[in-house]
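Please check this record.
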Amino acid sequence: MHDIAGFLRGVGIVILITVIAGIIAYIGDRVGHQVGRKRLTIFNIRPRYTSTIIAVGTGMLIALVITLVAIFASNQVQTAFFRLNEINAEIEKAQAHARELEQKVNNAQLVVNVDQLMSTQVGRIPVNSPAGLRKDIVQNFYSQTVTQVNRQYARPPFDLKKFVPPSNVQKMLGALSDSPQMQAWVAQSDVLLIATADQNLYIGDSIHFGITPVPDRLLVQGGRPIASISIPGGKNASADLALTQLLGTWVPRQMYVQFGMPEQFSANVRPLQMMPNLTEMRKMLASGGGTYIMTAFAAADIYPHTFFVPVAVTLQKAPSE
């Protein structure tokens, strides 16, 4: 659709230029004709040559005026006239970077995924902390994280290049510690600080990471259902497969999307209690018909500082059955 629109726009521009050229030629011819009829002369040149010169000059002047109007009226025309080489150089640079990334994705070894936790360090800003304390905690957490990621990742098997803090790091950390969002969160609860990869990292890349603040508030109250799935009973029913889907897909998704658990923690689901136990679940599904509901409940109050999702899993026959 975009290709068709671009083609039609290009055809329209060609037709417009052709019409303008015809108008310029016509005006130049008429001016030259009038000058020739009146047998005007400039610099003692013969009238015939004078009319030709004036006709050509008129056409050039009109073309110049139209071009200047287009330049002042359109940023695209300005770019085409004055920045085309620069744009082409940027395009070539972007294409080369894209080829480099494609080659890296296809051939290089990925060692750190984007959004992956980069450090076991976790900072904590207490509720109602003043600006100075927030800034000190953020800076200390950042320094400790730099030390840890360089010690861990700038060596085999990761073989990444050491992280070098940017020149504006103090300004960056100050902006984080004093941001409106941070102030709003700290006014209500503690705030955790975690370090995560802000891009995929391949062997030989420089280490990159960002600081992610997380308000440490109650996400799920103990005993509340988190996710459930329906299982048709029968000899082909698999309690193990259903449990894997529930704990490996649906609980992490719900904890992240619905309850706001950081993605780095929401996938860490730990079943603390099974009611009935897994062996009895297998028997229930294999021996009974109808539909069963497997549900994961919060086994305790869940906060971000829990760092995992404790659940209790139940299996019951669907109420309609």
Remarks:
- The mean pLDDT is 84.
